[in-house]
Amino acid sequence: MRNPGRKRVPDRQVLCGILFVLYTAIPWEYLPQELGFGSEMTCWRRLAEWHEAGVWQSLHEVLLAELRAADKLDWSKAVIDGSHVRALKGGPNRPEPGRPRQDRLETPRHHRRRGHPTRRQPDRRQPPRHHPTPRR
Predict the structure, then answer these.
(1) Largest separation between any pair of C-alpha atoms in the chain
(2) Which residue in 126, 103, 108, 128 sits closest to 118, CA to CA?
(3) Which SS3 state, helix, strand or coil, does residue 116 take?
C-alpha cells in the first residue's frame, strides 16, 4: 500500500469550504459536512498551509495586476490599514521634541506602572499552585 490513510480532499473543494466560512462568517466547527468541503480542520489547516506558502499574497498580486491592466481599479475608494504599514524612524508618526507621546496621554501614569487600581493583581508572595502529582 503506497498511500495509507484517508484520501486528500481536492483543493477546489477545500477552497469552497474556506470561502463558505469566510462569506457566511460561521465558526469553523459549524461547517456543514454534507456540503462536501471536507472537515472544518481540513479547511482550516489548508488555509494556514496556503497562507504560509504565500498563495493568498500571490493571488492578491495577480488580481491587482489584472484589474490594473483592465483599468478597473478605483483608487478613490482605497483604504490603508495602518497596522500593516511600517513606520520608519523619523517618519511622520514620530513625536516632535518636547511633546508627550500619544499613548502616554491616553494611559495615566499610575495605571501603566502598577496596573489599574481597581483591577485585582495576582499576589506574587504566594508560590504558584501546582496540580497534585498522582501517587503510584
Answers:
(1) 74
(2) 108
(3) coil
CA distance 20 to 128: 45
How big is the chain by its Cα radius of gyration, in Å? Answer: 25
CA atoms within 13 A on the CB side of 54: 3
pTM of the shown model: 0.53
Are 28 and 46 contacting, i.e. CB atoms less than 8 angstroms apart? Answer: no
Q: Which cell numbers in the block locate residue 117?
A: 487600581
Q: How many CB atoms within 10 Å of residue 60?
A: 10
Residue with cell 462536501: 36
Residue 99 has what DSSP assignment?
Answer: S
d(C-alpha 104, C-alpha 24), whole Å: 40
Report DSSP letters for 62-109, one per residue.
HHHHHHHHTT---GGG----GGGS---TTSTTSPPTTSPPHHHHHS-H
Residues 22-72: pLDDT tens digits?
999 999 999 999 999 999 999 999 999 999 999 999 999 999 999 999 999
